[in-house]
Amino acid sequence: MRAARSPGPSRLIWMFTIGPIDLASIGSYAGQSPRCSMVPPSGQGAAVMNRILPPAGPPRVLALAQLVNSLGDGAYYACSALFFTRIVGLSPTQVGLGLTLAWGTGMLAGVPMGHLADRWGPRRTALLLALLTAAALSAFLVVRSFPAFLVAACAYACCQAGLTSARQALLAGLDPEATPLRPAVDVPAGQLLLMPAAWGGYAGVKVATVAPGNPERGLPRIQGVYLLLDGRTLAPLAALPGIALTSLRTPAVSALAVRHLAPQGAASLLVFGTGPQAWGHVIALREVRPVERVTVAGRDQDRAAAFAGRCRALGLEAAVAAGPDRTRRAVAEADLIACCTGARTPLFPGGLVKDDAVVVAVGSHEPAARELDGDLIARATVVVEARGAALAEAGDLITPLSAGMITDGHIAGNLADLVGGGVIPGAGPGVFKSVGMAWEDLVVAAAAYRKWAASR
């Protein structure tokens, strides 16, 4: 078991709440500094406000609504005791016991109510529970006995617990399915990708390039730049190097999925690829699981050996899977498998993967390219960032779907479903297929900017 490390000053706390990551190490491995060109907020007061208040727009309005609701709750608690004892005729002991039991019931109802918000959507759930809360409060007007009071109080507490969960989901303001698909333009050297998104007080766009021939030139396959904007005025706030940003957010999203899919004791990791994403996944996955052994599979054996050496420098056992036989054996033994390549055909036979293993595939985002075969997809619990994006861009899913090996309903859920507890694992392995989405870049870029602004 690896001992916990104390985060240093250069560490950025992931927005996905999975722990700290050293942005400098990923940026340096990618060949770019993680430094950003920032436009400071106007005045010292703006920095303080950015630190205290939620982002401008709907999140700030919802936070104000929550404040007003809390003040109303306080007034309710103070006045209800007088109403129930002097008007209804209950004893103080009955009122205290009833409210205690009611709020205990509300605490237990919080989790299933949160799942309801994940399933129905936070807006619809919040509206329904607000109406039910009003009905429960109205019921107090006709209460004339302790049993009736207890039923009404429990109903009110449960509705309030669910309403709080729905408000928190609305404050988060992120729906993976609502993110627009990115346009991709083919050019002679590869592809140009445009990835815009808006959330809370921020908007942003990443211009990314994919050049398949770059690794042979000693250059990154994926490059780009990110422009972070103020959500209200669309004024530029920061320009961030695309490689450093992508090398941070993609492993972070994968680690979030692994945290919820993989067994707690997953200790062996097989990595396909030797580029920035492969390295980022080694760093990220060992933050959420006790990874002790890393096996590297790459086309260039020299680069694979150098990659294994970097893993050993972190205190990990590391080896290179040289040749098809060793690669197949590594697949069969691995607890975690990270596919971070530009491959257009499956990297290994899916039937070799253990039933309790978790496979992450992040290398392809084209309908005709895939790293995983249909056999693995068909027997796996499959989670994606968003169903719409995966069914439009993920060849790992589109190919077996076209061949009739799976149906649309084979996807067990998206990231929101997974985190909310809505994904039920099957008997086979887990698979997380990522194509990369604009909201992920925006969340991480906004977090970096807020951290920078707060330090001014």
TrEMBL record:
| Keywords from the UniProt entry | Membrane, Transmembrane, Transmembrane helix
Question: Is Transferase one of the keywords UniProt gives this record?
Answer: no
- What span is annotated as the signal peptide, if there is one? none
Q: Which domain of life is it from?
A: Bacteria
Q: Name one Pfam family in it.
A: OCD_Mu_crystall
Keyword Membrane set for record: yes
* Transmembrane domains' residue ranges: 12-31, 95-114, 126-150
Which is one GO molecular function term here? Answer: transmembrane transporter activity
Q: Which InterPro entries match?
A: MFS, MFS_trans_sf, NAD(P)-bd_dom_sf, ODC_Mu_crystall, ODC_N
Q: Which GO terms describe its cellular component?
A: cytoplasm
- Per its UniProt record, what PANTHER family does this chain match? KETIMINE REDUCTASE MU-CRYSTALLIN
Return the protein name.
Ornithine cyclodeaminase
